[in-house]
Design a protein that fits this description.
The protein is mostly helical and 127 residues long. It contains 3 helices and no strands. The chain has one domain. Helix 2 runs antiparallel to helix 3. The longest helix has 47 residues. It is rod-shaped, with a radius of gyration of 26 Å. 6% of the residues are buried.
């Protein structure tokens, strides 16, 4: 009897750390599943953070190409300078577009994850 009380208090303490409600009759398999879901949530958060950083870096490189490398066009450029300008402008625009898309998708994913996490937490605490 004493051993069951210790196990149930340990399960309740572990569940409190996972921010979930666990009743005294819950087995250890449910705790393992909860721990795996928390680990996967953390991994998804880290991946989305990586995509946000990657989007910002790509966007900044695009701005660099667009403003610094291409810059203001020459008044009477040679054909070679016109080609170089067009290439740099094209690279800058494409990188800015790709960086903005990656950044937007990552931010939307992060916001959706936060909303889902908030909804699931409120549902777990309502029963």
């Amino acid at each position: 009897m004493c051993r069951n009380a210790v196990n149930s208090s340990y399960l309740n303490l572990l569940a409190a750390n996972l921010d979930t409600i666990v009743y005294n009759n819950v087995g250890t398999e449910n705790i393992k599943i909860l721990m795996k879901s928390e680990q996967s949530n953390t991994m998804v958060k880290k991946i989305l953070d990586g995509f946000i950083i990657a989007g910002l870096v790509i966007l900044m490189i695009g701005i660099y190409y667009w403003m610094i490398k291409a810059g203001i066009p020459y008044q009477d450029p040679t054909t070679e300078l016109q080609i170089r300008y067009a290439i740099n402008i094209g690279i800058g625009e494409e990188l800015m577009k790709d960086g903005a898309v990656i950044l937007a998708v990552a931010i939307v994913g992060k916001l959706m994850g936060m909303i889902v996490q908030k909804v699931t937490r409120s549902q777990k605490h309502n029963f």
